[in-house]
Amino acid sequence: MSDQLTFQDPTTRFPDISPPKQDQPEPGLDAELIPGTDRGEDSYTGTGRLRGRRALITGSDSGIGAAVAIAFAREGADVALSYLPAEEEDAQHVCEIIRGAGRRAVPLPGDLSDPEYCREVVRRAAEELGGLDALVNNAGRQIAVEDIADLTDEQWEDTFRTNIHAMFRVSQAALEHLEPGSTIVNSTSVQAYSPSAHLIDYAATKAAINNFTKGLATQLAPRGIRVNSVAPGPIWTPLQVSDGQPKDALPHFGKNTPLGRAGQPTELAPAYVFLTSSESSYVIGETLNVNGGQPSP
Ligand code: NAD
Ligand code: MG
Q1: Is 28 contained in some domain?
Q2: Which residues, judged by CB distance below 6 Å to any ligand atom, belong to the binding site of ligand 1?
Q3: What's the CATH code of the domain at 150?
Q4: Residue 43 within any structural domain of the chain
Q5: DSSP secondary structure string, 161-225?
Q6: What is the domain range of residue 179?
Q7: Beta strand ranges found along 68-130 (DSSP E)
Q8: Number of independent structural domains in the chain
Q9: Which residue, by CA, sits nearest to atom 22 of ligand 1?
Q10: Is 282 a catalytic residue?
């Protein structure tokens, strides 16, 4: 590895992007995002930290979940991927990269707002991978609404169903398979502490995820199962263009962080690898903030 790769200025490691205004129907596709994102395809190098692990990663077709899936495979894990059927193109791209790393990729499309799929995706992942010892609850939806008067009952409930109810259901089902040494990592957000005015439903689910992470971690620690979470700041992913942000905000996305730029999905992957690998054996109920320096408790 060249010295240039091991010593990098974080302000310039990735370009300071100014995404043009754009719109995609929910869920957005990485394949159509302008500019494209870095999910570590050409940069993430594994060192065998997850050799032989069997992981289910939700929302692993795109964005942060895709970067985590690529990193897990390059670290030696087999990966089952959960995503919506409309995201098949993105998912197949990630499956190819996983297979290119010599690991198994098991695509399992479905809708996590359906309780039946939450249980079925776990059952199929364990069946296809010959067991399960790592779960990453990463799927989430984020739809910006400026005024609470316009926030419909349907949206409120959809956001909770996808972001937190599914996390409970998938985790509960996974625990039938997780042996001591297994891990759960949940995707929360800087929004859990600093809610944006236009994301009140989403931010509330992320605060719930932080709390769920700590409570479940305490419950499962005696069983040798560790639960932690990662709290990303502004990361350039399809979530942002499928109404995750007001359109006018897109060109400025992430520029208000102390680092001065949005994060790329691959910058999240090492946090998930760390919390899943046995290196973090004494880390329990923690939320690892990866947010470009925004204040968080
Ligand atoms: P993304 O759109 O690439 O990933 C989200 C994924 O969630 C989608 O790919 C989709 O597969 C999945 N999903 C959504 N609704 C679903 C449903 N009903 N059933 C099944 N799957 C569903 O965006 P991302 O930014 O990589 O998001 C990943 C996680 O990171 C989310 O939990 C998000 O809240 C969190 N997060 C993102 C940011 C950011 O700035 N991008 C910041 C903080 C937290
Ligand atoms: Mg997607």
Answers
A1: no
A2: 27-28, 59, 61-65, 83-84, 87, 111-113, 138-142, 162, 187, 189, 232, 234-235, 237-239
A3: 3.40.50.720
A4: no
A5: IIIIIHHHHHHHHHTTTPPTT-EEEEE--GGGTS--TT-HHHHHHHHHHHHHHHHHHHHHGGGT-
A6: 48-290
A7: 78-83, 105-109
A8: 1
A9: 139
A10: no
Which among 37, 64, 250 is the best mutation to test ligand 1's pocket, defined by most ligand atoms within 8 Å of the CB?
64
Give the angle subtended at the CA of 189 by the CAs of 274 and 206, to the nearest 5°. Answer: 115
Note whether residue 30 is domain-resident.
no
pLDDT band of residue 2 (cuts 50, 70, 90) is low
pLDDT confidence bin for 6, thresholds 50/70/90: confident
Instruction: Tell me the per-residue pLDDT of 148-182, one tens digit each, with 9 for 90 and over.
Output: 999 999 999 999 999 999 999 999 999 999 999 99
Q: Which atom of ligand 1 is nearest to the CA of 206?
A: 34
54: left (phi over 0), alpha (psi -120 to 50) or beta: beta
> Is 25 part of a structural domain of the chain?
no
Exactly one of 83, 193, 202, 272 is catalytic; which is it?
A: 202
Task: Give the pLDDT confidence of 134-150 residue by residue, as tens digits.
Answer: 999 999 999 999 999 99
pLDDT in tens, 30-68: 999 999 999 999 999 999 999 999 999 999 999 999 999
